[in-house]
Amino acid sequence: MLNIIMFSIGIMYTPGPVNLLSFNSGLRSRLTAQIPFSLGVSSALCAWFILVGYAGSSLADQAMQPYLGVLGCGFILYLAWKVFTSRVNLDGPDRPSASLTYRDGLLMQLLNPKSFMVVLPVATVQFPAADITGVQIAVWSALLSLLGFGAPMAYAVAGMAVGRRVARPAVFRMFNLLMGLLLVFVAFDIAYHHVVLPLGR
Predict the structure, then answer these.
(1) CA torsion, points 79, 99, 18, 162, in degrees to nearest 10?
(2) Which of 1, 20, 82, 159 is least surrounded, with the fewest CB atoms within 10 Å of its CB?
(3) Does position 50 have pLDDT exceeding 60, yes or no?
C-alpha cells in the first residue's frame, strides 16, 4: 500500500498547471487565500478516485478523454488570462477577483486530463492489487485527496518564501507573465498529447 502513496506523491507534487497557479498565488497573497483553491483540487481528485474506483475505467475511457482535454485546456487558458491580468498588490492580499477560488480548483482538476495519470493506475490497478474494495475505496480516496490538497499548498508556501524576498512590483509582474506563459505552454502540451494525438489515431 506504500507504493500507492509513493506513486501518488510522485505524480501530484511535480510541476503542473495546478501547482504552477498555486506557486503564483503564494507569491501574491496570504496562504489562507490558497485554501479554497486547494480544497477544490482535493474535492475533484476525491470524486475521480471514488467514481473510477467503484465503476472502473469505463467512466474515464479513452474515447472520452480528448473531449475532457479540450475543456481542460480551455479552462487552463482562462486561468492563465487571470494570472496575466491580475494586479500586483504589495500592501495586502489580492483583491477577491484576482484570487483563486474553490470553483477554479474543482473545475481545473475535474477537467485536467493529467488527473488520470494518477487516478486510473491507482483506482483500476493498485486498488484491486492491494485488495482495496467496498468502503475501503472511499477511505483511500479521501486519504489520497489529502495528498491532492497538500501539493498546491506546498507550492503556495514556496511562492510565499520567494515573495518575501521580493518587494518590487515589476518583479511580481514578471512572475505573473512567466507563470501565465507556462500555463499557456501546459495547455498546448495537453492539447497536443491528450486531444490531437488521440483523435488522430
Answers:
(1) 120
(2) 1
(3) yes
Alpha-carbon distance of 42 to 39, in angstroms, equals: 5
CA-based nearest residue to 50, from 170, 142, 129: 142
Burial 21-50 (b: 16+ CB within 10 A, else e): bbbbbbbbbeeebbbbbbbbbbbbbbbbbb
Cell numbers linked to 112:
485536467
Please provide the average confidence, as pLDDT, over all residues in the chain.
Answer: 81
Confidence tier at 39 by pLDDT (50, 70, 90)? very high
Residues 6+ apart with CB under 8 A from 92: none
Contacts of 60 (CB under 8 A, 6+ apart): 48, 52, 116, 119, 120
Those residues whose C-beta lies under 8 Å from the C-beta of residue 78, and which sit 6 or more positions away, are none
Residues near 19 by beta carbon (within 8 Å), at least 6 away in sequence:
13, 151, 152, 155
R_g over Cα of the chain: 17
